[in-house]
Amino acid sequence: MKALSRLAALLASVYMLSGIHFANADDLDSFVRSRQQVLNQFEDARQPASPALLQPGRAITAAIAPRQPVSSVQSSDNADELISSAMGLLGVAYRYGGTSASTGFDCSGFMQHIFKRSMGVNLPRTSAAQAKMGVGVSRSELQPGDMVFFRTMGRGRISHVGLYIGNNRFIHAPRTGKRIEVTSLSNKYWNAKYAFARRVKKNDPSRFLN
After folding, report:
1. What is the pLDDT of residue 119?
2. Which helix (H) or strand (E) holds 194?
3. Is the model's pLDDT at 58 over the cut of 50?
4. Main-chain dihedrals φ then ψ at residue 159, nearest 5 degrees
5. DSSP class per residue in 52-114
6. Any catalytic annotation for residue 21?
7. Do 210 and 135 form a contact (C-beta atoms < 8 A)?
């Protein structure tokens, strides 16, 4: 409990400095507990790792997904950077049209932010446009760092996007009233709305192709 209190105090200081505000102490407490529960799940799933996997910036990916040979993927370094950047925003509020941590993100704004920050890749603004980037990936071949797309408004256009982080989970900004969170692709709602996945690599010309 003391550790949780210290974590709450630390996060409160960080978010005050970054311009992120909580309406009251209960909101902050709920955010800390939610974030800690997610991180605890990843910690429980952690397997003994070799020293190479414990380099700075690689711990998160190693904890939630087996590493893949570099030649077979979205480069592991790219995935590590994307996931680290995304997890650092866990708990930030959803805001329609939002593109920054200080004001909140919508789903595509969240993707746009982490790809720009981590890989220097400029994604389009909407999930429908982002769904035309990179190359298609079958659901059985998903790898950490892939973008996963959903049709939340029927069988029409793509209307939601998240980042696959391994272990059948993705991180996303869900909707108004929610915060950036980690969700299982097996979740009844999201499983039914799943459309397809795309892989965008750093310095890969195919990311500009439909």
Report:
1. 94
2. strand 194-199
3. no
4. -135, 0
5. GGGSTT-HHHHHHS----GGGSS-HHHHHHHHHHHHTTTTPBB-TT-EETTTEE-HHHHHHHH
6. no
7. no
d(CA 139, CA 168): 10
Residue identified by tokens 């959903």 is 150
pLDDT grade, residue 205 (50/70/90)? low
Q: State pLDDT tens for residues 72-81.
A: 456 688 899 9
CA dist 63 and 98 (Å) reads 30
Distances (CA, A) of 21 to 11, 103, 107, 148, 177: 11, 9, 20, 29, 15
Tell me which DSSP letter residue 5 carries. Answer: H
Of the residues 35, 67, 160, 199, only one is catalytic, namely 160
- The one catalytic residue in 35, 67, 113, 172 is 172
Number of neighbours of residue 157 by Cβ within 10 angstroms: 12
Tell which residue, 155, 103, 147, has the closest CA to residue 129.
147
Q: Which of 107, 119, 163, 197 is catalytic?
A: 107
Q: pLDDT tens for residues 142-188?
A: 999 999 999 999 888 999 999 999 999 999 999 999 999 999 999 99
